[in-house]
Design goal:
The chain is α+β, with helices and mostly antiparallel strands. A six-stranded antiparallel β-sheet has the order 1-2-4-5-6-3, covered by helices on one side. It is globular, with a radius of gyration of 15 Å. Helices cover 22% and strands 42% of the residues.
């Protein structure tokens, strides 16, 4: 991951909004992901692996890895938007670097470029088994900043 920048949130209530975005996502709850840490422009999540996260050969399904990378990146981006704004994934690319298995996945995401309309983020997904931690996926996620105004 590239060198981390220091960002200032535009919403003074960004911590409350960040937790809302994470906690109120039904698919993320179903998956079982946990919000571990966040600060402006940065987010860390964890997913304790279950059998239903696997594909047919017993490895973590690519969709599980992609979802964790995407949502963690979205949370990192959400820490920087203004009050009344949200982020939606506009595009993402993921590289699956090796077959993933272990006790849990960790994902670390950080904002690379915080724009007013588009935010570019990077996520790294690690598989953890005991003391062994392996980078298994890396994603670049572009987030569109949209207004809460339903008429836009």
């Amino acid at each position: 991951m590239s060198e981390e920048q220091v960002f200032t949130p535009r919403n003074p209530e960004y911590e409350i909004e960040t937790r809302r975005v994470f906690d109120q996502a039904p698919f993320i709850r179903l998956l079982g992901a946990e919000l571990c840490a966040f600060r402006p422009g940065h987010c860390e999540t964890r997913l304790v692996l279950r059998e239903d996260h696997q594909q047919q050969d017993g490895f973590v399904h690519a969709g599980v890895q992609a979802t964790l990378a995407d949502h963690t990146a979205g949370i990192a981006g959400a820490t920087l938007v203004g009050e009344g704004e949200r982020v939606l994934t506009a595009e993402f690319k993921i590289n699956l670097l090796r077959a993933a298995s272990g006790e849990y996945l960790e994902c670390i995401a950080q904002v690379l470029r915080p724009g007013r309309r588009l935010i570019v983020t990077e996520s790294e997904v690690f598989a953890v088994e005991g003391s062994k931690r392996s980078l298994v996926a890396k994603a670049t996620v572009t987030l569109a900043v949209v207004s809460d105004n339903k008429e836009s």
